[in-house]
Amino acid sequence: SAYYVLMNDITITSSYWEPITNFSGNFDGQGHVIDGLNITTRANSNGNIGLFAENKGTIKNLGVTNFNCTSWGTIGAVAGTNSGTIQYCYSTGSINSSLATGGSVGGLVGYNIGSSAYISDCYSTVGVKVASSSSSNVGGLVGYNYNGIIKRCYATGRIATPSTNVGGLVGYVYSSNTDRYGLEKFCFYDAGTTGMSDNSKGMGITTAAMKSQSTYTAWDFTNVWAIESGVNNGYPYLKFGGSMPTTAIEGVGTITYPYEITNEKQLIAIENEEFNNAKSAYYVLMNDITITSSYW
């Protein structure tokens, strides 16, 4: 339950990693990476595998690179199960699992569970191969999203599984809210590299679109993200150290002083819930707006 900062990159030399269990503290990677995490043993007693078995706290500004897992259980490079916050993190590597029926596997997180489960501004290039039954949940970023929120994330890793609960970004989604499709916001996956074509759990787009900044209208390329043709194979990457500021707007959202919408970014911020009581406030449109986003 303590606070930690990672002071430098670390290469894991142990062949038998024991995932960090029941973490409820704050882990700030400060933009560093933990490289070479190799897991071949079975899951812990709760069935979770990753750098962290279960995260109930905050993990941020961290890369988990060259992750390799050939075990079984609920698997994610950063966390097997997340019921806390994961922000500004990414993962690379591969998962090759003979998963038992009903498990969940994702490139970043296996199981994202609960109304407090929040993943934002993250990506995974982990290739996920699961020889499982049709009831397993397999996704490029998250295997199973149960009432959690995922914002401004993407996945590119190849997915190979016979499971029907599968997706380029998220394998399976459950929501106790009527807003079933509102749990993954402004998220994408590369339909070409993942081999997936589902669009209800993140939007599948072409490789060319994934490498174009104009695709990511709701993302912050000033403080959080960057994109260059010669870096990260042309996909967006994290700058680290920055945070996405709240979009500026006039008004306070009441009937007397409604929020004044003047541009596309402010419209997007409503769905991003950047304003107080964003979904139940009063708004007035102050001028005509031309939508430039290709993926509204």
What can you tell me about this protein's structure?
The protein is mostly beta strands. About 5% of the residues lie in helices and about 40% in strands. It is built from 3 helices and 29 strands. It has a 15-stranded parallel sheet that branches. The radius of gyration is 19 Å and the shape is globular. The termini are far apart. The mean pLDDT is about 90.
Question: Which terms would index this structure?
Answer:
about 300 residues; 3 helices; mainly beta; 15-stranded parallel β-sheet; 29 strands
- Provide a count of the helices: 3
What is the radius of gyration computed over CA atoms, rounded to a whole number of angstroms? Answer: 19 Å
- Major sheet: size, sense and barrel closure? 15 strands, parallel
Low-confidence stretches: none
Distance between the termini: 39 Å
| β-strand amount | 35-45%
CA-based shape: globular
Q: Kindly state the number of beta strands.
A: 29
Mean pLDDT: 90
Give the fraction of residues assigned to helices: under 10%
- How does the helix and strand content classify structurally? mainly beta
Offer a quick outline of the entry.
This protein is mainly β. The chain has three helices and 29 strands. Strand 28, helix 3 (264-271) and strand 29 (283-285) form a beta-alpha-beta unit.
Write the layout of secondary structure elements.
Blueprint: E1 3-5, E2 10-11, E3 26-35, E4 38-39, E5 48-49, E6 52-55, E7 58-69, E8 74-75, E9 79-82, E10 85-97, E11 104-106, E12 109-113, E13 118-120, E14 123-124, E15 127-130, E16 137-139, E17 142-146, E18 149-151, E19 154-155, E20 159-160, E21 165-167, E22 170-174, E23 184-185, E24 188-190, H1 191-194, E25 203-205, H2 207-210, E26 225-226, E27 237-238, E28 259-261, H3 264-271, E29 283-285
Parallel strand pairs: 1-3, 2-3, 3-7, 4-7, 5-8, 6-9, 7-10, 9-12, 10-13, 10-14, 10-15, 11-16, 12-17, 13-18, 14-19, 15-20, 16-21, 17-22, 18-23, 19-24, 24-25, 28-29
Antiparallel strand pairs: 26-27
